[in-house]
Design brief:
The protein is α+β, with helices and mostly antiparallel strands and 183 residues long. The chain is 30% helix and 30% strand. The structure holds coenzyme A. The site of coenzyme A (COA) has 23 residues, from β5, α5, β6 and α6.
């Protein structure tokens, strides 16, 4: 069963809200198994996209691993995996996890490099942050970002996140900075 999402602030991006979904525009909706396609697979397998993603370092990305990941998020009440679509084409994913905790974590990936630098991530983050604040009764949302991931740090900053600390990344993958957004 899909988790329901309320529409929030207005921008280029709509958030799926049942009948309000406008498939001709850019929108975010909860990923379902039927959304898994080769764009998703090729995006996650693209070294430029996956360079800073911890998840892709621990296991090989295959259609099967993506199916498992999407179904785990559908069945897990403390996480939600959104797809970012432009005109029905899956262009990226955004994940909220630890939604049952005081501080919710957020991660984002946009698969198509030609979409980078056009403020999509900034807008998506703002939209999903607002969704998290309104739906989970939290006051903090956080992200761990590789220190060298300049584009990501800039997008999170533009979406209202600030640098709070630096920590070693998991699996000896360098340094991460922790950024938080507070109400
Ligand atoms: C990180 C990512 C989500 C940023 O998406 P995006 O849509 O390009 O972000 P925005 O357009 O909102 O960019 C914010 C700013 O960073 C800049 N930027 C984006 N990528 C950049 C890069 N590789 N190097 C330097 N600056 C970059 C943009 O130009 C923009 O700057 P501006 O406001 O001065 O114009 C996207 O590059 C991506 O999916 N990367 C692969 C996965 C990943 O690393 N995810 C983050 C894990 S924490």
């Amino acid at each position: 069963m899909e988790k329901n999402i309320n529409n929030q602030v207005s921008s280029r991006i709509k958030i799926f809200n049942g009948a309000d979904l406008q498939r001709d525009s850019a929108y975010i909706k909860v990923m379902s198994l039927s959304d898994i396609n080769t764009t998703y697979l090729e995006g996650m397998q693209n070294p430029e996209v996956s360079k800073f993603l911890t998840s892709t370092k621990t296991e090989k990305v295959t259609l099967e691993s993506l199916r498992l990941f999407v179904s785990e998020n559908i069945n897990n009440t403390s996480s939600v995996l959104f797809g970012f679509f432009i005109e029905e084409n899956l262009c990226g994913t955004i994940r909220l996890h630890n939604t049952n905790c005081q501080i919710v974590d957020i991660g984002i990936a946009i698969f198509d490099k030609s979409l980078w630098g056009k403020s999509w991530a900034t807008e998506i983050l703002k939209k999903v942050v607002l969704f998290a604040f309104e739906n989970y009764g939290i006051s903090h949302i956080a992200a761990g970002i590789d220190v060298n991931n300049v584009g990501s740090i800039k997008a999170f900053k533009k979406a209202g996140f600030t640098h709070v600390s630096s920590t070693p990344k998991k699996y000896n993958l360098g340094l991460a900075i922790r950024m938080e957004h507070k109400i």
